[in-house]
Amino acid sequence: MFVAIFAIFACLYLKVNFTHMATHSVSKHLALAEQHKILRSIGPLIFSLFYFFPMFSLWGVLSLHDLGLQVAIFICFIALYCVAVFKQGRDVTLTIILMLIVTSVGSLVTPGTSTLFGYIAPLCGFNYRRPYSFFMLGTMLFIMYLSSQFLITSNPLYFWAPALLISIGLFSFGVFERQERLHQIAHHMSQEKLEQLAAIAERERIARDLHDTLGHSLSSIALKAELASKLHDAGLQQKAVSESQQVAELARDLLSEVREAVSGLKQVGLYAQINLLEQRLMDAQFNVEQQLDNVDLKAEYESTLCFIAKELVTNILRHSDGKNVSIKLSQQETLSMRIFDDGKVDKFNLGNGLIGLKERVEALGATVMIDTKVGFAVTVEFVEEAL
């Protein structure tokens, strides 16, 4: 009989190995015991002590040999269980086969093995995808039923019924634990994806800033240097010197702009960032008004608000013909930031900068509102989770 049982599970082992080759790689590397929650999987073994209840009821008639054999079966099963909870995915199949053989053989010695069958069920629910998990459970229940009918000498119902209830309950735990673990992994991967998209958007913004900063100035330097060379060859020394001086002036201005752009890449706090941006606006002859509430933000939201403020202020410095700018940060029902300038807007189209800003903000569940009726105003509203 046990040769047949082993043959059934050997075939199942090969089948599951073959079908799991096509499964998602994430599910292959899940083990029931998490590194930082080992007691959560090992702790329930305390209830396996119910295995010894039949031993206590027959204490007076059991020989020393029977006692030693029952203890050896228990220790062997517990050792296999501890190995199984650390196995990943389909790798647990052979261990489950060994656990079932030990438990079935142990039923010849004691009916207490009905308790041990329940510990195999969560492994079936956790380590396999549906419908293979149900197939594994059904096979386990079938072997458990055979054990109760052919290996238990008295009261097979008292063996079968409790083991069935325990197995179904713990199998459900294994299924739900697997779904929860996969959900956590998917959430973590989604967060990593958002961070990657944010990094890409930031690199694109840096590339645009450097292009806008360097492109025009370097073109002017190249043209003026070429002109100075031609004037020198034509004998117009004074004009050549003048053009050379202008080249030097452009180079100094460009160096200053590059330093300013690079310093803007250094992450500072939101309020310090707004103060730096205010100073840039004032240097460009803008009148700046600040209305900032004191808000304690999560790091990712504070970083996003810094990015928003830099992007919008850069747009004002490049394109606005206004003179007044207001920056507001408020927390009422929602957290919001509003940056406004009174420049005239004849025709408005979303550029790459604002498109990237909108995508980054919406990835965090926030909304962006743009108003061009009077001046140019951008308002970003975050949900309460930002706090």
TrEMBL record:
Domain Signal transduction histidine kinase subgroup 3 dimerisation and phosphoacceptor: 202-268
Transmembrane segments: 42-62, 69-86, 92-120, 132-152, 158-176
Superkingdom of source: Bacteria
Keyword Transmembrane helix: yes
InterPro entries associated with the record: HATPase_C_sf, Sensor_HK_TwoCompSys, Sig_transdc_His_kin_sub3_dim/P
UniProt KW keywords: Kinase, Membrane, Transferase, Transmembrane, Transmembrane helix, Two-component regulatory system
Gene Ontology molecular function: any one: phosphorelay sensor kinase activity
GO cellular component annotations of the record: membrane
Protein name: Two-component system, NarL family, sensor histidine kinase DesK
